[in-house]
Amino acid sequence: MEIFGTDVPVAVVAVIAGVLLIDVVVLIDLALHDVRHLPRWAWALIIVLVSFPIGVAIYFIIGRVPRGEAATIVADTPAQGSVASDGFGNGPEVGVGTGLGVGAGLRDEPEVGVGTGLSESPRTTSASPASNAPAAGAPVVATSDLRKVYKDTVALDDVDLEVPRGAIYGLVGANGAGKTTLLSILAGLRRPTSGSVELSVSRRALGVLVDTPQFDPWLTAREVVDLARHLSAPDLPAERTTHALAQVGLSSPADRRVGGFSRGMLQRVGLAACLVSDPEVLILDEPSSALDPAGRREVLDLIGGLGRDKTVVLSTHILAEVQQVCDTVGVIDHGRLRFQGPLGELLARTRAAYTLHVPAPATLVIDKLRSVVWAVEVIETAPGRVRVTVSDAEKAQTDIPAILAECGVPLLAFNPATDLETAFLELTT
Q1: DSSP code of 60?
Q2: Residue 109: pLDDT over 50
Q3: pLDDT of residue 281
Q4: Per-residue pLDDT tens for 359-376?
Q5: How far is it, in rounded angstroms, from Cα 228 to Cα 220?
Q6: How far apart are CA 295 and CA 143, in angstroms?
Q7: Which of 91-115 are b and which e, b meaning 16 or more Cβ less than 10 Å from the residue's Cβ?
Q8: Cα–Cα distance, 171 to 160 (Å, whole number)
Q9: CA–CA distance, 77 with 56 (Å, rounded to integer)
Q10: Is the predicted pLDDT of residue 129 greater than 90, yes or no?
Q11: Better-scored residue on pLDDT, 74 or 140
């Protein structure tokens, strides 16, 4: 047989055609199965570039995950000397920031080097099928004896996390407490040293936003979010991109290149890329850290609204944010989960307080409040503004409006003043 003017034996042509056909079949198999140890694109390169049949054999023996294999993150001892740049997940970003692992709902396996800011290689962590979803109220994300060690640094120490379905779970801790490490393990972007993570939703139903997301500067915001849609939920209509941009307040600059965006605007792009696939579970690392006060308020309102039909796990060191939007809270300190439960239960661990705003002068109201048994301290902090520290929060919430009505004084504002910071410091100091 003559090819390009050269006589080539028919047998050689048949062998080459057979090899190419096998490679195509194996690549199709790669697209249909989960993989482990390496991202899907890396296995594709091994199949195509490594001498046949070695590359194919390596894929089937090491990389291919058989259907039906257990879907739990298994602890893995980290490679010798493998340490993130700062030990807590703020490693340098590499590759292209397309939103996969930054914002979009993840595919069956997170990929390496896609602008995640998490420097360790991910591990395949498929979840149980959505059809087997537990009843409402059961944990949608749970960890058991989770531990992560970087050389001599214990980043996580036997963490047993439980995130109820439909909760807005606030993970609170100081910088370096282990928040980012924990969230990156939940997202499948890191491997635990020991312990396990269980998800009751498909990994396709996760949306992940890392702290300070980065994207290719020549892309527009619309292109970034639409690329995230193509990668994570290609069956959704293109209108989802426009809707996600509108949700985060980026309708006007949607067609501007992200290279000129401020850090706060990049945060919004990442959040839009996270929302575009309509995930069931959102994992948000410091979602409002780079925003101005108005932008922070908008993002918190958005997160609060998402809690109606989604499960949200967010980390923050801004305690006021947790008190505004979260119904469940976990306090992490030096890698240990010091508290986990309803926000009200955490606040109840410390003495409750409330602030009242009534028309000045407030003398009559103050005298009446000081006469009740449950009022520990009543202070007028400014004309018409009263702080009441109480021993019985439930009774105070019932009686304070009645006292004001009895005094004939209108109530202009009534807010809890129990300082989450006080409760946090009691747990961590």
Answers
A1: I
A2: no
A3: 93
A4: 888 889 899 899 988 888
A5: 12
A6: 32
A7: bebeebbbbbbbbbbbbbbbbbebb
A8: 13
A9: 27
A10: no
A11: 140
Q: Quote the CA–CA distance of 153 and 155 in Å, as a whole number.
A: 6
What is the band of 6 on the pLDDT scale with cuts at 50, 70, 90?
Answer: low
What are 200's two structure tokens?
Answer: 């009751």
Pull the structure tokens for residue 221.
Answer: 């915001």
pLDDT of residue 221: 94
How does DSSP assign 84-110, residue by residue? Answer: -SSSSS-PPP-B---SBTTTBBP-SS-
What's the average model confidence in pLDDT over 97-114? Answer: 39
| Structural element, H or E, at residue 337 | strand 336-342
Residue type, 428: T
Give the pLDDT confidence score for residue 350 in this predicted structure.
Answer: 66
Q: Please, how many CA atoms are within 13 Å of residue 279, restricted to the half-sphere of its CB? A: 34
16's enclosing H/E stretch is helix 10-32
Q: How far apart are the first and last CA of the chain?
A: 81
3-state secondary structure of 173: coil
Residue 67's identity, in one-letter code, is: R
